[in-house]
Amino acid sequence: RSLAEEMRRGISVGEFFLEYQPRYETNSRAIRSVEALVRWAHPERGRISPADFIPLAERSGLIVPLGEWILRTACQTVAPLDGIGVSVNVSPVQFRDDDLVAIVASALAESGLAGSRLELEITEGVLMEDAERARGIIGELKALGVKLAMDDFGTGYSSMSYLCDFPFDVIKIDRKFIADIEGSGGGRAVVQAILGLGRSLGLSVTAEGVETNGQLALLARDQCREVQGYLLARPMPEDRLRDLVAGAA
Ligand code: G
Ligand code: G
Ligand code: MN
Ligand code: NA
């Protein structure tokens, strides 16, 4: 059977699950929110990476039902965690679906999660396909109180102009820039420029992929508000997240 058929079967029998990676306030080290990341535990092939099945899910359209399940599950899991928000990655293909706004509204309503605790992470791909359509949908999502983050910032072609032209709340600096900040190649200057841009536009900036204490120290010195990465916490299953938030881990 093809991987697409396997995915369809896997969705129906519940082989997909979510992990959650905490995002920390740099100075207080408090967890403000978590990023939901989908995982597939295949019975014979073992764990299949989202880097392999998300592109397939996008081509086959399966990302629409899978993405709906991800949104509902993430909202339900995080709603009981007081003071914690959740970020969900949303694919350009989900923006082509007429039901996205209704799905987000009902995921919030059925979980009881306030709209302000949900953040949708999009890449510039969402805006490139049909900017005017995306603008309309984003307006409806923002009317629900939902926050909007630009993911993988700096890796695309036009993320700078999109940042000014759409109502983003958060910039997530792509981890490839964070990997370079300790070197002598000007990586830190690039990150400082993005932080300055965030300050000027009134946006919160999150650094992704923080893996070393040296990177964390530089980001703190440069006043990057939030940090995420293996140094602080890896993506984890929901029971471990609950323990961590309750202070047991
Ligand atoms: O979690 P990991 O680093 O293996 O993810 C690999 C890629 O898959 C990343 O680009 C990430 O954004 C994407 N991804 C992970 N979870 C989701 C999800 O729930 N929805 C979408 N659309 N992409 C996801
Ligand atoms: O495309 P997006 O930024 O959503 O991808 C997030 C992915 O990055 C997740 O799959 C997550 O597993 C991965 N990730 C999170 N923290 C780190 C890190 O510190 N280093 C690396 N290499 N990957 C990370
Ligand atoms: Mn992301
Ligand atoms: Na990213």
UniProtKB/TrEMBL annotation:
Domain called EAL: residue spans: 1-249
Name by which UniProt lists this protein: PAS domain S-box-containing protein/diguanylate cyclase (GGDEF)-like protein
Complete-protein stretch covered: 795 to 1043 of 1057
